[in-house]
Amino acid sequence: MSCQKTEESIHGYLDGELDLARSLEVEQHMEQCEVCAIAYRNQTALRSAFKDSCLYHSAPARLEKRIRSSLRREAKSEVGRRSFGWNWLPVGVGLAFVLLMALVIWRAMPGLRPNGDELLAQGITSDHVRSLQTPGHLTDVLSSDQHTVKPWFDGKVDFAPPVKDFASQGFRLYGGRLEYLNNKTVATLIYQRRLHYINLYIWPAEQGGSTSEVTTQRQGYNLIHWTSSGMNYWAISDLNNVELHEFASLVQQGQ
């Protein structure tokens, strides 16, 4: 398959519109052509960026003050309009009451606000997208040798992240880097599965023990997190859930 045909097929490949044979042709070409592989990663990152919640802004706090002021002016205006009588005054007061009650209820209901894991998932997703979009940001140390990557973290974090290579199982160690998430420095390992990258974030857990895997999705990316051997693990990729669970199982077995 030529670069031109691959470029024409990338959007269909991303949307899952190609048949199996055509999808395999696209994947095989991108494995051999770095230019087309970069184009694919850029399209993936761009699509994800448009879904980032940071593009959506909540109303500013001063909006409440403006609504209150507007309602007061409207109520006074209605009182002064003799031709309309006094019947409009209860309407303005009632509307103000409804808006204020809605605001109070929104502030009082924690379910309407994201919890810690949701905020962390969003932060990890944004970091994952940034690592794919920004040239040179994916790795600080580029190596498939675990004996090179693991010592690189010495002195940079106050814990020893477990580093394993799963190339024989189809998940090649690609490198590592440092990130700052959840108000702490975390070790990040990068793995490659065909044309897909996996970011594995690791940092010490606040409590001992282990927790089972929790799966979620953000902006088209799959995330799995768990706690084991005193460490928190978060894995994120555009891989399907089955393959990402396979990777998570390998990490847990290798600890």
Order of strands side by side in the largest beta sheet?
Answer: 1-2-3-4-7-6-5
The whole-angstrom Rg is 25 Å
Shape call: globular
Largest sheet: 7 strands, antiparallel
Distance between the termini: 41 Å
How much is the average pLDDT? 82
Secondary-structure class? alpha+beta
Q: Bin the helical content.
A: 40-55%
Number of helices: 8
Written account of the structure:
The chain has a 7-stranded antiparallel β-sheet, sandwiched between helices. It is globular, with a radius of gyration of 25 Å. It has 8 helices and 7 strands; from the N terminus they run ααααααβαββββββα. Helix 1 (3-14) crosses helix 2, helix 1 (3-14) packs parallel to helix 3 (34-50) and helix 2 packs across helix 3 (34-50). The model has no long low-confidence stretch (mean pLDDT 82). The chain has helices at residues 3-14, 20-32, 34-50, 62-80, 88-108, 116-133, 146-152, 241-253, and strands at 141-142, 172-181, 184-193, 196-204, 211-218, 221-228, 231-237. It is an alpha+beta fold and 255 residues long. A hairpin with a 2-residue loop joins strand 5 and strand 6 (221-228).
